[in-house]
Design a protein that fits this description.
Elements lengths: L5 E3 L6 E3 L3 H11 L30 E7 L2 E6 L5 E5 L12 H8 L5 H8 L3 H23 L7 E15 L10 E10 L5 E6 L1 E2 L4 H11 L19 H9 L16 H14 L20 E2 L2 H15 L3 E8 L3 H10 L1 H5 L3 E7 L6 H22 L3 H19 L7 E3 L11 E4 L8 H9 L4 H13 L25 H18 L8 H5 L8 H5 L5 E2 L2 E2 L2
Helix pairs in contact: 1-8, 4-15, 8-9, 11-12, 12-13
């Protein structure tokens, strides 16, 4: 990339890529559109005096004109035209009684063919119901999450990570996978999934993006990416160029390789150092292709928009702590979004890394030994085990600062190994020089990615579309699975359906859901509550 595509920090001498604020705002609008207040039904005749005048807030402007099949007809008293207002979410559906079955089966690892056998529906009918459930989940969640920022909290802890998904090729003549990535944030105390956003926009197509780029002169030599018409989207030529210089068929998955935690940290650092832009880890492999439907977004723009939406949801919290996987785009996105709070010492961020490939017996043995060591630390200090861990982390961090001038190399070992996170290493990212080692020690002591990792694990296990593909010698690293989707839109829908199910329906202890603990629900939600949800109108506004 051209030299003026980056900015250089005069303090740490690191570079960061320049972004388009307009493109970040557009991506933010895309992923947060479900939060917008739905307009009240009104006369649809252009130019009518009652256009935009709600049927419920101004009933005197309309006259009831019958109705059928879950809809009410109104006659506008100004232009005398009639129109229908839907009163039931399932209006005009042929088998509404099967909605619950499809909903329950799809979040319980039932493949499409299995749902067809259980319900007797055709494939197209099942897909229609998935479209319906996706709309209902977005509407239901949007009405609740629209008020999330009003909830005051003393502190919030966030876990952030990303996950890749493979989409099968449709044609034997082009046996290349579509490799998409979603960014997810889970709130630690409640386990509420604040967002799970895929770098894919199903509502426009590649031709529209290419035409806009051509009109804007984006194909001219030397054009800066941040000056493009829509820099958040991949262009065909750009994708082909990047894939052509890739050394791998698909993006590497370091977490699946046999290596120690220190080797894993080094491998990820090396990978980011050889990328043309470390903030664009969605670097395509030779075996990847763009989707024939919809358009793929650059992951950095999706990440920046995701971080800003998360900030909006937790803006009622006095203090925020962000724990992230070792990932440059996540670091940049969240530090950018929370920068004002970081400067005010009201937010901080740290990387968390741990050894991924160990047997369960090895993990349990390591956890037992670490518990004994922590007990010894507490006995020697005459304090609680938690305080002993904090002191250990503070001392380790102070030692790392004194011997290592590069903050990116100040990884600190965590003394407590768990079966979920053995041999943890923590890297503090927001040292402004105003915090004491003890204060930083408290942050490092609580560092974890377990909530988001557990959510990812359930997602892989419960949604067939999203299972991890297994490469074999016979497919020459090309990954195809009979359960995987052929349309990226289905992956996007599944992510949202499962997120809403996890937050509002699934109970962790048989009594409470993440939404209840987060403050967005008073009790567990039933499948029917989402299936039959309808927006409520009051004086022209959706009820909050």
């Amino acid at each position: 990339m051209a030299p003026d595509s980056f900015l250089k920090c005069k303090r740490c001498l690191r570079t960061l890529s320049i972004k388009s604020n307009a493109a970040i705002a557009a991506e933010m609008s895309r992923i947060s559109a479900y939060l917008e207040i739905r307009p009240e039904p009104s006369c649809r005749t252009p130019g009518c005096a009652n256009a935009g005048v709600g049927v419920y807030s101004r009933p005197e402007a309309y006259a009831a004109h019958g109705g059928r099949r879950g809809a009410q007809r109104f006659r506008c008293k100004a232009c005398r035209k009639t129109f229908s207002v839907q009163l039931k979410a399932t209006a005009r559906q042929k088998a509404p009684h099967l909605n619950r079955t499809v909903f329950a089966e799809v979040v319980s690892k039932k493949p499409l063919r299995g749902i067809m056998e259980v319900t007797g529906l055709s494939a197209s009918a099942v897909y229609d119901k998935l479209d319906f459930l996706y709309r209902q989940c977005r509407g239901f969640a949007g009405e609740r999450e629209r008020r999330a920022h009003r909830i005051e909290r003393k502190r919030v802890q966030l876990c952030v990570d990303r996950q890749d998904y493979m989409i099968n090729w449709r044609s034997k003549s082009a046996r290349k996978n579509i490799q998409l990535t979603a960014i997810c944030t889970v709130e630690v105390d409640s386990q509420y999934v604040l967002g799970h956003h895929l770098n894919f926009d199903p509502d426009i197509n590649q031709t529209e993006v290419e035409d806009a780029a051509a009109l804007n002169g984006d194909f001219a030599p030397g054009t800066r990416s941040y000056f493009r018409a829509q820099p958040q989207y991949w262009l065909n030529a750009e994708f082909a160029r990047m894939a052509g210089i890739s050394k791998t068929d698909i993006r590497p998955d370091f977490d699946g390789e046999e290596m120690t935690v220190d080797e894993l940290i080094a491998a990820k650092s090396r990978w980011e150092s050889i990328l043309p832009d470390p903030e664009r880890p969605d670097f395509p492999g030779r075996g990847n292709q763009l989707s024939p439907d919809g358009v793929m977004t650059h992951l950095d723009y999706t990440a920046y928009a995701h971080a800003r939406l998360v900030r909006r949801f937790v803006s009622g919290a006095r203090y925020a702590t962000i724990y992230s996987d070792q990932d440059e785009v996540l670091r940049a996105a969240f530090i950018s979004a929370f920068a004002p709070k970081i400067l005010l010492e009201e937010a901080e961020m740290a990387y968390v890394q741990f050894q991924k490939q160990m047997t369960i017996d090895e993990k349990k043995d390591l956890a037992r030994r670490s518990n004994k060591e922590i007990a010894s630390l507490a006995l020697a200090s005459g304090d609680t085990e938690q305080a002993a861990i904090v002191k250990f982390m503070a001392d380790e961090y102070a030692a790392a600062v004194s011997r290592e001038p590069d903050w990116r190399k100040r990884w600190v070992p965590h003394p407590k190994s768990t079966t979920n996170e053995p041999r943890r290493r923590i890297l503090y990212l927001t040292d402004t020089g105003n915090k004491t080692p003890e204060r930083i020690g408290w942050t490092l002591a609580g560092a974890t990615l377990a909530p988001v990792d557990n959510y990812f694990m359930r997602l892989r296990r419960k949604i067939n579309y999203l299972e991890r593909p297994i490469p074999t010698r016979s497919n020459a690293s090309r990954l195809w699975s009979g359960y995987h989707a052929y349309d990226p839109k289905r992956v996007l829908q599944m992510l949202e359906i499962f997120r809403v199910y996890t937050n509002y329906i699934r109970t962790n202890d048989g009594k409470s859901t993440p939404a209840m603990k987060f403050g967005l629900a008073k009790g567990p939600v039933r499948f029917e509550d989402i299936i039959y949800w309808m927006p409520r109108f009051n004086s022209g506004q959706t009820a909050e």
